[in-house]
Amino acid sequence: MAESVSEVRAWVNQRRGEGRTIGLVPTMGFLHDGHLSLVKRAKAAGHAVVMSIFVNPLQFGPGEDYDRYPRDIARDRKLAERTGVDLLFTPSVEEMYPRALQVTLRVGDLANRLCGLSRPGHFDGVATVVAKLFHIVEPDEAFFGEKDYQQLRIIQTMVEDLNLPVKVIGCPTVREADGLAMSSRNRYLSPEERRRAAVLSRALFDAARRCREGTTRAAELVQSVTQQLSSAGLEVEYVSAVREEDLGQVDQIDQPCRLLAAVRVGETRLIDNVALEAGKGMGHVSAYVDR
Amino acid sequence: MAESVSEVRAWVNQRRGEGRTIGLVPTMGFLHDGHLSLVKRAKAAGHAVVMSIFVNPLQFGPGEDYDRYPRDIARDRKLAERTGVDLLFTPSVEEMYPRALQVTLRVGDLANRLCGLSRPGHFDGVATVVAKLFHIVEPDEAFFGEKDYQQLRIIQTMVEDLNLPVKVIGCPTVREADGLAMSSRNRYLSPEERRRAAVLSRALFDAARRCREGTTRAAELVQSVTQQLSSAGLEVEYVSAVREEDLGQVDQIDQPCRLLAAVRVGETRLIDNVALEAGKGMGHVSAYVDR
């Protein structure tokens, strides 16, 4: 386990000297099977695997859950070790931000939609901390879940725009038995809220199925999902069908698209998304992963 | 000579494989002895030296001199070769910006003063292109002139804030015989303007001397420089005494400080700066380099 940037750099240099490649799995901790699936993917690629655990204050807005975000480093450490993480990097806020940053990253239009509308500055904070982690670890590949789809696309775009020498690998969302996307924030849910939360993935999968079966008008899919969510008493923040390329809204599903939604269940904000593939028949939903 | 990112990466990988370290000298071309002094410094450190030549549109504002910025790549190539540059990187605008960037760098307070006041967005553009060059070349050390002092401090701060794995080396300003700091923009000056332009460095050196001799009140030094510049018919944009640390204005020269000035000589904007060292006697002006 390393807590300082210099320890990480020394460790990485040693691995490089041994001819190893480096895989990075950046997390905010409170690990679940989604995080661990990223580690397994990195292991399978043959990397020495660095996992970072850092609840990044820069990506939380005022009134958000930075203070109460769940943390359990002892449990995380055991899970990481058991899954084959080679180095766990758990920096303090002071190690990552010894002073207020003068230079940060700024995300353009890609951040001014979907989750960005209710979380101004969030993706600037994400891009900044991920760039820092990339500079500290210098991984060959970095692994992110598709569950945070807008984040994934923004990080991939950051890598392209800034020529970062790293490959960003998006990995399928891991789900509970009833379809709920795994998230550290699921622990906020009361048993009753937890039951209702399953409607989110169910509505999205239903739309993905209808799309494959021939419903290619985005408005129709969005309306159907919105209705199912509202009927289940979930407060809809957005439901949106967008191009995978630039997250721009589409009218017709005639190219690689994604259907994304954010809801509130009680006080808890949940997000999820599925791939939309028009006319692909009744195939397996690509965003679903059996565990 | 390389024009593409992939050529540079292949070349750098090869040098790394041979056990070489890499030094980067980023420039906008139209090379003068200032640029070449950076190359010599990088050679002396034993690096394989990459020089980039790229007139970066992102750091020019509307109405600035992007279009007429002097370019002479054939001459630059000869000078670079003669000085021992190992790889000249001359990307096109399309190679650096294949599309409008979604993710850029943003500089805080350090950019909201001095040159930043008349050139909004300038240092964001500088930070963004330099980060890209750092990611493309992955140098061990990068060399910048002290002549663009605010730029140098912003790049050093960027490296610290974003944990970039590169060491930024600031190198002394190289000057013409009459003290004028070398700059590609000096070629804009008419013979008469060129003569008057020498007052800029002369006034700054005079203030540095007075400071060493005991004048430690910043306002007094600033006023004296302003007066000399105005008397010579130079239009003063700013004269400012700041801490080297954070470029914050000081009242007293009682720590490492810098005296910076920007003027217009006719249509041409010129900048220069000197170190302020209180009570150091009549020593050699540290910003002056004999060629």
TrEMBL record, chains A, B:
Short name of one Pfam family: Pantoate_ligase
- Decide whether keyword Metal-binding is in the record: no
Superkingdom of the source species: Bacteria
**Entry's PANTHER family?**
CYTIDYLATE KINASE/PANTOATE-BETA-ALANINE LIGASE (PTHR21299), PANTOATE--BETA-ALANINE LIGASE (PTHR21299:SF1)
Q: Which residues bind beta-alanine?
A: 59
Q: What does this protein do?
A: Catalyzes the condensation of pantoate with beta-alanine in an ATP-dependent reaction via a pantoyl-adenylate intermediate.
Catalytic activity, reaction form: (R)-pantoate + beta-alanine + ATP = (R)-pantothenate + AMP + diphosphate + H(+)
Record note on quaternary structure: Homodimer.
Query: According to its UniProt record, where is this protein mainly located?
Result: cytoplasm
Cellular localisation: Cytoplasm
One Gene Ontology term, aspect cellular component:
cytosol
Q: What is this protein called?
A: Pantothenate synthetase
**Record's keyword annotation contains Transferase:** no
Q: Which UniProt keywords apply?
A: ATP-binding, Cytoplasm, Ligase, Nucleotide-binding, Pantothenate biosynthesis
Which additional comment does the entry carry? The reaction proceeds by a bi uni uni bi ping pong mechanism.
This entry's Enzyme Commission designation comes to 6.3.2.1
Stored InterPro entries: Pantoate_ligase, Pantoate_ligase_C, Rossmann-like_a/b/a_fold
Q: Which residues bind (R)-pantoate?
A: 59, 151
UniProt lists the family membership as follows:
Belongs to the pantothenate synthetase family.
Identify which residues the record assigns to the active site: 35 (proton donor)
Tell me one GO biological process term.
pantothenate biosynthetic process
